[in-house]
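Budget justification note: compute hours in this period were largely spent on complex prediction jobs such as the one shown. Inputs:
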Amino acid sequence: MKNMKLKLARVEKDLSQEELAKIVGVSRQTIGLIESGKYNPSLSLCINICKALSRTLNDLFWEEEEK
Amino acid sequence: MKNMKLKLARVEKDLSQEELAKIVGVSRQTIGLIESGKYNPSLSLCINICKALSRTLNDLFWEEEEK
DNA sequence: TCTAAATGTAATATATATATTGCAAAAAGT
DNA sequence: ACTTTTTGCAATATATATATTACATTTAGA
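Corresponding output:
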């Protein structure tokens, strides 16, 4: 499913997909596909994205279990 | 570098690499290589490992920045 | 000590994340 | 309305995570 938390954090920082992509060193498509939930990114990429957006892994990539 | 937090969490649950691997559906080698820091695992694998060990992404895969 | 279990390591094969390019559609600015 | 920026989507190519098998080494238990 889509990663809205990532998209919101990016927009809050006023970054386009392309700008974020350049910061973390991947292509714009990669960012877009992660936001739309079509990729299963690597841990190091997740960490780089978190650092670029001043968030943690749990902030952007962890879903609390619904009981 | 090695992922000691993962290894400790696994040992605390009294699981061998092979047992954890079976639970999360990967090979024993994959777990070993992640613990020894030679792999860059996928996000979904990290999440599965976290759930198997009752931890979060931040618990096992996030390093606080040293300032 | 002896044995079995657990882990490290290496080779090859496969699946998939990611890059690249290009174009279309949508959104935002003027 | 027009222009520019942003995003979506597709095709092909490449890099790398992961599987599989096998063997060596270390660790733990008897």
